TrEMBL record:
It comes from Shewanella decolorationis S12. The lineage of its organism: Bacteria, Pseudomonadati, Pseudomonadota, Gammaproteobacteria, Alteromonadales. This is Protein nucleotidyltransferase YdiU. It is an enzyme of class 2 (transferase). The gene is ydiU. The active site is at residue 244. It catalyses: L-seryl-[protein] + ATP = 3-O-(5'-adenylyl)-L-seryl-[protein] + diphosphate; L-tyrosyl-[protein] + ATP = O-(5'-adenylyl)-L-tyrosyl-[protein] + diphosphate; L-tyrosyl-[protein] + UTP = O-(5'-uridylyl)-L-tyrosyl-[protein] + diphosphate; L-seryl-[protein] + UTP = O-(5'-uridylyl)-L-seryl-[protein] + diphosphate.
Length: 484
């Protein structure tokens, strides 16, 4: 790995230098060849294993934990920071630089009560979902590898420690800005320093002045809106949308109790520690805005409120437009350039009508969409019909859909296009769980198979058909705890 150390050298007051503590008997549990390419790595070598497990120094690495704060479940925590993630620096790759972080690399000055470690099950889940989301075309941080160990760690029971090697275009979170606004009050120069760094690194076309800051914030609003639109379209619930888990670049970030929807349920809660459903699936668009408002608040020392509010006012439109684009593609409706508000509303009703039907009929979200790839939209009889119990309701919806769809010239091409946006394979919680249980038993094959299948989520892969099934009863809507 070749590193540059821009954050480390330019923002010395924004982190604590800390070295990872090694783990016993490190071994590769997973390796992403796709992520490796991003930073010009070829093979998971022994030397790399020793370096990334913290047992040996990595040449060129700096080792630091960043400081930030954030709103957690609505309340402000004045100081957080990387309590179990140690960044090595920005590794250079053919298309840019990626922060390399050892998530679970050991205690840092920000660990407070935690042990600085991650358990194997959570490291494996983070690895799988990072790579799965990427192949589903959802913006996300990436995962290079999971390193297992025989080091015991204690959660509800004894487990073993593991490290996810995370790659991120940036680790800067909304919470970084909140820290320098609220917790380090009166340090507007630091806020500006962080802002200028962010702009120079990631928005080089913008100037480091008020005009640039305004354009940048609008971009953050739009990127966040796009990210949430992706989650809603693909059926992904993040589970812990605290502002310290919101990437400034609009990448999916920090994977804990996340879930892809099995049966469609608008108010699905994937996080065991969120009984009130603050981060329920259907709440995500609203929470995205709430989080942006917290970011805006933190930026008031450098950007006038009126400009921040004007940018925030763009959020809903940006989200709806992106969501419409993704959902029209799923349904096979022609994209509408310059559509009117009325047309958009009609399409939203069509989409909402379908998800309501899915919920009423307890249908699997992904598998139902996938069936559009076999649908003959010119036929009055829909092959989807048999899945619905209330046929009258379905027929009414289908009629409206057909009217909106119009004539499809090349049905085969239309079906293929549906299969290229409606995935066959998603990372269902029960699949991750089965792979994790196998790893506990010393069998890495199911994890590797799942990882490989998720690299091509839109391909048929008939030999892996079993991984596309809706979950068995025990695995339906599986809810995870935060203890990771
Ligand atoms: N085992 C642990 N030891 C020490 N600190 C921890 C531990 N687990 C979580 N934390 C800290 O608690 C805070 C909230 O945790 P959260 O689950 O959002 O983040 P995370 O999953 O640890 O990491 P990241 O956000 O970098 O993906 C963070 O500051 C995190 O570093
Ligand atoms: Mg976090």
């Amino acid at each position: 790995m070749k590193f540059k150390q821009d954050f480390f050298t330019q923002l010395p007051e924004f982190y604590a230098q800390v070295y990872p503590q090694g783990i016993s008997n490190p071994h590769w549990l997973a390796w992403s060849e796709d992520a490796a390419k991003l930073i010009d790595l070829q093979q998971p070598t022994d030397a790399l294993l020793q370096g990334l497990s913290g047992n040996a120094a990595v040449e060129g690495a700096s080792y630091y934990a960043q400081v930030y704060s954030g709103h957690q479940f609505g309340g402000y925590t004045p100081r957080l920071g990387d309590g179990r993630s140690i960044i090595l620096g920005e590794a250079l790759g053919p298309q840019g630089a990626w922060d390399v972080a050892l998530k679970g690399g050991g205690p840092t000055p920000y660990s407070r009560h935690g042990d600085g470690r991650a358990v194997m099950r959570s490291a494996v889940r983070e690895f799988l979902v990072s790579e799965a989301l990427h192949h589903l075309d959802v913006p996300t941080t990436r995962a290079l590898a999971v390193i297992g160990s025989d080091m015991p760690v204690w959660r509800e029971s004894q487990e073993t420690a593991a490290i996810t090697v995370r790659l991120a275009r940036s680790h800067i979170r909304f919470g970084h800005f909140e820290f320098f606004c609220h917790s380090e009050r009166g340090q507007a120069d630091k806020l500006t320093q962080l802002l200028n760094f962010t702009l120079k690194q990631h928005y080089p076309h913008l100037s480091c002045d008020l005009a640039g800051y305004k354009a940048w914030f609008l971009q953050v609003v739009q990127d966040t809106a796009k990210l949430i639109a992706h989650w809603q379209a693909i059926g992904f619930a993040h589970g812990v949308m605290n502002t310290d888990n919101m990437s400034i670049l609009g990448d999916s970030f920090d994977f804990g109790p996340f879930a892809f929807l099995d049966t469609f349920q608008e108010d699905f809660i994937c996080n065991h520690s969120d009984p009130e459903g603050r981060y329920a699936f259907g709440q995500q668009p609203g929470i995205g805005l709430w989080n942006l408002q917290r970011l805006a608040q933190a930026l008031t020392p450098v950007i006038p409120s009126d400009d921040l509010i004007a940018a925030l006012n763009q959020y809903q439109h940006a989200l709806v437009q992106h969501y419409l684009m993704l959902m029209r593609a799923k349904l096979g409706l022609a994209a509408r350039a310059n559509s009117t508000a009325e047309q958009d509303q009609q399409d939203l009703e069509l989409i909402g009508g379908f998800t309501v039907l899915m919920e009423k009929n307890q249908l699997d979200y992904s598998n139902t969409w996938r069936r559009f790839g076999q649908l003959d939209p010119s036929s009055a009889h829909s092959s989807l019909r048999d899945d619905f119990i209330d046929l009258k309701e379905f027929d009414a919806w289908y009629q409206t859909y057909q009217a909106r769809l119009g004539k499809v010239a090349d049905i085969e091409a239309w079906q293929q296009a549906r299969n290229s946006v409606n995935p066959k394979y998603i990372l269902r919680n029960y699949l991750a769980q089965e792979a994790i249980i196998a790893v506990e038993e010393g069998n890495l094959a199911p994890l590797e198979r799942l990882h490989q299948v998720l690299r091509q989520p839109f391909a048929e892969q008939v030999e892996h058909e079993d991984l596309a099934k809706r979950p068995p009863d025990w695995g339906q809507g599986l809810i995870m705890s935060c203890s990771s």
